[in-house]
Design goal:
Structural class: mainly alpha
Shape: elongated
Number of strands: 2
Radius of gyration: 16 Å
Low-confidence stretches: none
Order of helices and strands: EHHHEHH
Oligomer: single chain
Number of helices: 5
Strand order of the largest sheet: 1-2
Length: 107
């Protein structure tokens, strides 16, 4: 990992939006290694199958207007997924900081 230019985590977009995304995809020891090596900034999450969309499901899950277009649904789901992955990842780093007795790093 120390010599890697980047580390890619690839997951189906439906998996990527579930409540435990980064926590499940990255084990505690892997996150600790990324943190200690200073490489967590090189981590890339890739959400596959983003072209597969159940409009009614996205409308319901994200509480969009019933008349939202496929494009609006796709943009909303992608924005939600990006935010969820980032929030989960940084929450994991902050948890590790707290466990080590350090002040949690800002986002």
């Amino acid at each position: 990992l120390k010599e890697a230019d980047s580390v890619w985590i690839v997951s189906n977009i439906n998996r990527a939006v579930n409540d435990r995304t980064a926590k499940d995809l990255l084990g505690e020891s892997f996150k600790r290694t990324l943190l200690m090596d200073g490489t967590y900034g090189r981590l890339v999450f890739v959400a596959t199958q983003s072209d597969v969309l159940q409009r009614s499901e996205v409308v319901r899950a994200l509480r969009l207007d019933r008349d939202a277009t496929d494009l609006e649904c796709a943009k909303a789901r992608n924005a939600f997924t990006k935010k969820r992955v980032l929030d989960d990842f940084y929450a994991g780093l902050q948890d590790m900081d707290r466990a080590a007795g350090d002040a949690p790093r800002p986002r």
